[in-house]
Structures are given as C-alpha cells and as structure tokens.
C-alpha cells in the first residue's frame, strides 16, 4: 500500500453550494483489491466537520460524499444530479445494487468503500427512491428493524426486483385491437429483407409490446429531436408500423415499412449496406437504439417487460466453495444446441441445459483448483413477460447446424425461479422465426398466433394458415417444411 499525505489550503465549493475555505488533506490509497480508489478528506476550519470524497478511477466519474460527523446529514452529490434524459445500454449498469460479487467479497465489504453510484440510481430518483439503494451503507438502528436479517444491498435488490415486476405488470398484454382480419403480409422492399419482415411480424404479434408502444412511448413524449439533425426515433417508427398494421391498411403498412427502412439506414444499421442479415442481430440493434433514444422512464419499462434478471452460483466440486453472481441482465437467451441432449431434447430441455451446466477449466477462487468441473446454476430473479430464445445454429464460419429441436408450446420455468421470485414463470409460444438454407443464401419466414388462436405463416407478402400437421411438425419434430426454428417468442402466462 502506498500512502501519500499533504496539507494545503484551497478554496472549494462545498456541497451546500457556498464557497468556503477548507483545509484539504489528501490521501491516495492504492489497494490491489479495489483497483485503486482515491480518497480526499476535507476539513472545515470553522466547524471542525470533516468530509471524505471518493473518486473512482475507471468505471465512474461521479463522486460520493461521506461525512464523518454523523450529526448533520449532508446532501449527497448524486441526489443533486439532475435526472438523465437517456440511458445508454449497459446490461450490468442498469442495476448497481444487483452487482456481481462473490459471497466472500460481500462478507468482507468495507462499509466506507462505497460503490460508485451509477445510472440506475438516477433512474431510481425518478421513482422517488432518493439515496435508498446506496449499497454497502451501514445500517442504522431503525434500518435494522426494516431490513431484518438482510443486508441493505440485499434488500435493495429485492426492492429493485419488485419495482421491475410492478412496472411490467402495469402494461397489460391484450389482443384487443389486434383483429385477425388485419393480419397481412409485408412486401420485401429490397429483396433481402426477409430477415426483417420475419422479425417484425413476430414483434407485431406481441400484445404487450404493442401496448407499451401505444400507451407509453407516445409521440409527444419522444425526445429524439429530428429537427436538430438527429436520426429519427426507431421506437416511434415501430409504433407507426404497429398502428398501421393493426388498422389493416395495406398502403399505410407499406409506407411505414419504407419509413423504417429509411430510419434504420439513418441510424447506421449495418452502415447502410444491403445484404442478408441475422434477425437476432437486428433485434439487439433495435433494443440498443431504444436504450439510446428513449427517455429512461420509457426504457426501464421495456427492460422490465423483456429482460431477465439472472442470479447464478457456481459450486466447486473440489472444495464445495460457492461463488455467486447476482443481477445479470439478459435479453435474448442464446441457447447452444450442443452438446446434444440424448434422446432428442426439446427446446425446454436445451433451456434447462443452458440454465444449469458444467463449467470446465475454471479456477476456483477458494482452492485454486482448475482441473475439476464446476456446476453452474442460474436462477430467474426476475421473469420478463416477453421471452426471446435464440437457437445458436450458426458457427463463427457461418456454417449452419440444422439439428431439429422440437418447440414447446408451453415452457415452464417455475422451477428455475429464485425463492424471492413469486411471479408465474410459465410461458406460452406466441411467434417463431424459421430459417431455411445457408447463412448467406437462406430465407427467413415467421409463424405467429392471432387473436383467434389460429397460427399463420408469414413469408414476406404471402400469408397462409398453419395446418395442425405443420404445427405438430414444429412442436414434435422441430422442423416445418424445409425450415428449422431459429428465434422463439414466448409470452408469460399471468395468473
Ligand atoms: Zn420516439
Ligand atoms: Zn474450490
């Protein structure tokens, strides 16, 4: 440890916005564990009160003030920070309280070594949480009554998860306003847009996504300013398509598709180049655009509706040490279809394989053993309402694995929930994107369920009814015609 100390007098701006003369004592501490945190201690010559200011070199430019004298509570700097208008997509940064940690780190946590506040705390302010979820804060006597045996960090995790459930529940998935008579094909504008049409058809058939676009992201609440030269808002264009599609007007659907194509180009999708693309890449790109362009209050609802929060624990078979990670945010579950499940596993079995698997060649934090396998298990701390599952069929060289995987119409993930997660995690299939051929020379179509319960197949302009036999081929044999399922969309069954 290196410790530098010097005393100097500076004119500083204190937290109450009055310039005052402070005596500054600088301490620079470097510890290998923390990656080097810098602490500056301030002392007021008049009152004798001292403040400690931490800055965090890598992940955050923001500063936490912590007063040593507890008689008077200073206003913390992040409470004063104005609410951000936008959030960049940072899968982990959305929830600093759901941070990655091992049990040992949590037990040894130094109460003064506060986590850098990150963006979600600013979002939390919008929910009126103020500084409640600063992790690592020592508990007061009153807090102990409230939190019981749980640490404050654990409590705020529970709190964050409840908030996710609440805001997702507020958007009701209803097929009202989605009449079967409006379902229609979509023209392939450039000849290579089947991947996008297949994806859009699947998204258009998600009642909750439609409800979110129509009721939450209304044009008057959009902050993407086209007049100032910003590219058009991706969510707004999707909203226009949703509106046109379910009105049943072919002409306005065509216009909305032309607009979407233009907007995606403006927003630099594949740098304006043509060519066949992957619908999952397109979906990820769209979600990234939502996170960049939407007001934070709109994006967090979308996130709660469509993103998992997963806790995982890895058990060392050699010493029994359990290393855990909480709060991983995951959108599409990208499922490996290798190793094959003996006897021909269905999608549900591959999802289970994904959530519980052996980790090889990983060094144990505790006994340093890297030879034995470790069992990893992932649990659903938050179950989104719309689940997207991708079957990983393409390898790095673009070669396709056409192995048929039967698709479950009902997917039950209730056994995979954490003990705190009480929301029903049974899912119902609502749409599938299927693929035929090779990565570059292939074709995508989709199948989706309408308000009347009838499944339709959408092959660009062409729409046909899916017969019972075709549906059975998909759910029992894992292929339909020459097509293999690639992306599956599920809707949570509410009870
Ligand atoms: Zn918008
Ligand atoms: Zn071990």
UniProtKB/TrEMBL annotation:
It holds the Pfam family UCH. It is an enzyme of class 3 (hydrolase). One of its GO terms (biological process) is protein deubiquitination. This is ubiquitinyl hydrolase 1. Residues 95-144 are annotated as: Disordered. The keyword Protease applies. Its EC number is 3.4.19.12. GO terms for molecular function: cysteine-type deubiquitinase activity. It comes from the Eukaryota. GO terms for cellular component: cytosol; nucleus. PANTHER family: UBIQUITIN CARBOXYL-TERMINAL HYDROLASE (PTHR24006), UBIQUITIN CARBOXYL-TERMINAL HYDROLASE 36 (PTHR24006:SF758). It catalyses: Thiol-dependent hydrolysis of ester, thioester, amide, peptide and isopeptide bonds formed by the C-terminal Gly of ubiquitin (a 76-residue protein attached to proteins as an intracellular targeting signal). Residues 184-493 form the USP domain. Belongs to the peptidase C19 family.
């Amino acid at each position: 440890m290196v410790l530098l100390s010097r005393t100097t007098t500076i004119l500083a701006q204190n937290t109450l916005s009055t310039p005052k003369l402070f005596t500054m004592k600088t301490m620079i501490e470097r510890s290998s564990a923390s990656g080097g945190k810098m602490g500056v201690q301030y002392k007021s010559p008049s009152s004798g009160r001292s403040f400690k200011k931490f800055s965090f070199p890598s992940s955050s430019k923001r500063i936490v003030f912590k007063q040593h004298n507890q008689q008077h509570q200073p206003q913390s700097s992040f409470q004063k920070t104005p609410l951000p208008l936008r959030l960049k997509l940072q899968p982990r940064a959305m929830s600093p309280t759901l941070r990655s940690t091992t049990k040992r780190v949590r037990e040894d946590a130094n109460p003064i070594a506060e986590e850098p506040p990150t963006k979600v705390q600013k979002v939390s302010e919008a929910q009126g949480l103020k500084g409640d979820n600063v992790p690592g804060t020592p508990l007061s006597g009153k807090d102990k009554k409230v939190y019981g045996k749980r640490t404050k960090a654990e409590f705020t995790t529970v709190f964050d998860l409840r908030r996710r459930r609440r805001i997702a529940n507020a958007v009701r998935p209803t097929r009202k306003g989605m009449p079967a008579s409006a379902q229609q094909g979509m023209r392939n504008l450039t000849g290579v847009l089947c991947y996008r049409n297949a994806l859009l058809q699947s998204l258009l058939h998600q009642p909750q996504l439609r409800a979110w676009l129509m009721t939450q992201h209304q044009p008057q609440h959009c902050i993407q300013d086209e007049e100032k030269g910003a590219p058009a808002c991706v969510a707004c264009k999707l909203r226009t398509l949703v509106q046109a599609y379910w009105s049943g007007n072919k002409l306005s659907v065509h216009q909305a598709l032309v607009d979407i194509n233009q907007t995606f180009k403006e927003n630099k999708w594949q740098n304006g180049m043509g060519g066949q693309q992957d619908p999952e890449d397109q979906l990820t790109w769209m979600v990234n655009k939502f996170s960049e362009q939407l007001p934070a209050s709109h994006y967090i609802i979308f996130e709660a509706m469509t993103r998992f929060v997963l806790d995982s624990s890895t058990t060392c078979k050699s010493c029994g040490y359990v290393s855990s990670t909480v709060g991983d945010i995951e959108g599409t579950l990208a499922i490996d279809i290798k190793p094959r499940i003996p006897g021909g596993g269905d999608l549900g079995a591959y999802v289970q394989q994904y959530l519980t698997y052996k980790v090889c060649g990983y060094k144990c934090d505790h006994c340093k053993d890297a030879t034995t396998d470790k069992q990893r298990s992932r649990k659903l701390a938050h179950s989104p309402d719309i689940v997207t599952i991708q079957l990983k069929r393409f390898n790095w060289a673009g070669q396709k694995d056409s192995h048929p995987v039967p698709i479950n119409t009902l997917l039950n993930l209730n056994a995979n929930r954490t003990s705190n997660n009480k929301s029903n995690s049974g899912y119902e299939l609502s749409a599938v994107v299927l693929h035929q051929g090779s990565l570059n020379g292939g074709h995508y179509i989709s199948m989706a369920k309408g308000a009347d319960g009838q499944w339709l197949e959408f092959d660009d302009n062409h729409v046909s009814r899916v017969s019972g036999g075709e549906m059975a081929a998909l759910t029992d044999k894992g292929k339909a015609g020459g097509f293999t399922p690639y992306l599956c969309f599920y809707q949570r069954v509410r009870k």
